[in-house]
Write a structure and sequence with these properties.
The longest helix has 17 residues. The chain has two domains: about 250 residues, Peroxisomal Thiolase, Chain A, domain 1 (3-Layer(aba) Sandwich); about 150 residues, Peroxisomal Thiolase, Chain A, domain 1. The chain has a nine-stranded mixed sheet, sandwiched between helices. Strands 2-3 form a two-stranded antiparallel ribbon. The chain has a two-stranded antiparallel ribbon with strand order 10-11. The radius of gyration is 21 Å and the shape is globular. Helix 4 packs parallel to helix 7, helix 8 crosses helix 14 and helix 11 crosses helix 12. By secondary structure, it is α+β, with helices and mostly antiparallel strands. The two termini are about 40 Å apart. The N terminus is likely disordered.
Length: about 425
């Protein structure tokens, strides 16, 4: 028994390298990875007027909505689609892309018990909650409340359904940290593989918040941009920025133990080399103004990645929401984390094109970071025509740039003070 314990402990404590072997995205600028990336590097904005529901009287009328999307093209059948909230359907679409891309098949080239799922949502089934609560208000007896209400709206259901679909019998964990949800999910997946607990993880995030209740809630909180022109509404690091723009979407990355990936001849996009996680412990919605805790999070990922200022060319996909408080605090955090090197790194906020996908944003931005490393192209921050003097770093304004990148970071900060940062290295 003692020998078994020692063997198990050694197995868990063994450090393993972690590869990215599959990608999937669903967003307002593309329903697949190829179109998402092509639109990013060409500065295409997917934010537009909301046509899916009436906006009369709502504080905002623009969002990044998923369009021309047929779930049946992503391996789902009509009965399944009818029973699910859009946040789960979105997640299934991204997971289908990523799993097909990776070539992993449980029971064939990976032990089902060594395939895990870390996919969650910042809110969960928001549309389902809105619909079922309206029923309850109309009829307090609750007789018309769907028996599927709870298993449809809970935030862990996207991961649960993905695990069922792909026979992933390892850990299935739903991390909910607001806008940092997906980044934490990817980071914790990295740790699980790195320390030997699992061989591969389906990791990412999903959200469907651009609904009337979301528009009213975030709008009344004065968090949303009220710009009339949807193509010039999300303005990260711009002096004229006035808030973020809601967007729907999902993204999934397949993380896999490096030797396992190599043994089966998988395509390796990049290596995950670092992960930082801290909490502001300051305010429910506002970031810590001095950037200290955000900087500690970024520095943790940098240290694990063995950042070398003399050798590394760095790209940071910033959280960059376009809110007054976030962009200044994030700039401060990057200066603290990188020191004098902050003015040499390449930064951009792709939210300027795809909006803020809440719990999905970190995963979509991780996909962008991985592709930036692979392709040697930095996506731009569009609409950066009037830089804020307090945001004085290189945010890649308006036009994509080529660079021989070696290290990529993606950071996310969420309500509740949640901070997460993941680091990727070019293969």
């Amino acid at each position: 028994m003692k020998n078994l314990y020692i063997y198990g402990l050694n197995h868990v404590l063994m450090s393993k390298r972690v590869a990215v072997t599959g990608l999937g995205v669903l967003s307002c600028i593309g329903n697949d990875v190829k179109s998402f990336w092509n639109n990013l590097i060409h500065g295409v904005c997917g934010i537009d007027y909301i046509t899916e529901f009436p906006t009369d009287g709502l504080p905002v009328k623009i969002a990044g909505k998923i369009r021309n999307f047929n779930p049946e093209e992503y391996g789902m059948d009509k009965p399944f689609i009818r029973k699910q909230d859009p946040f789960t359907i979105f997640a299934m679409a991204s997971a289908w892309q990523a799993m097909n891309d990776s070539g992993l098949v449980a029971g064939q080239n990976i032990d089902p018990l060594r395939l895990s799922t870390y996919v969650s949502s910042g809110i969960g089934g928001f549309e389902t909650i809105q619909r079922e609560v309206a029923k309850m208000i109309e009829d307090p007896t609750g007789q018309w409340i769907s028996p599927l209400f709870v298993p449809t709206m809970i935030a862990d259901m996207a991961g649960g359904q993905i695990a069922i679909k792909y026979g992933a019998q390892g850990s299935c964990i739903g991390i909910v940290t607001a806008c940092a949800t997906a980044t934490h999910s990817i980071g914790e997946a990295f740790r699980a593989i790195h320390h030997g607990y699992t061989d591969a993880v389906i990791a990412g995030g999903t959200d469907h918040c651009a609904i009337p209740l979301g528009a009213a809630a975030f709008g009344n909180a004065r968090a949303l941009s009220r710009a009339e022109d949807p193509k010039h509404a999300c303005l990260p690091f711009n002096a004229d920025r006035g808030g973020f723009v809601m967007a729907d979407g999902s993204a999934v990355l397949i993380l896999e133990e490096m030797e396992h990936a190599k043994a089966r001849g998988a395509h390796i996009y990049a290596e995950v080399v670092g992960y930082g996680s801290t909490c502001d412990a300051y305010h429910a919605t506002a970031p810590r103004p001095d950037g200290s805790t955000q900087a500690a999070c970024i520095k943790e990922a940098l240290d694990q990645a063995a950042f070398d200022p003399a050798a590394d060319q760095v790209y940071v996909n910033a959280h960059g929401t376009g809110t007054k408080l976030n962009d200044v605090a994030e700039t401060t955090a990057l200066k603290l984390a990188f020191g004098d090197e902050a003015y040499k790194i390449h930064i951009s906020s792709t939210k300027s094109m795809h909006g803020h996908m809440f719990g999905a944003s970190g995963a979509a931005e991780a996909v962008a970071t991985v592709l930036a490393l692979q392709e040697g192209i930095i996506p731009p921050t569009i609409n950066l025509d009037k830089p804020d003097p307090e945001c004085d770093l290189d945010y890649t304004p308006n036009t994509a740039k080529k660079a021989a990148l070696t290290l990529g970071l993606s950071d996310s900060f969420g309500f509740g003070g949640h901070n997460a940062c993941i680091a990727f290295r070019k293969i």
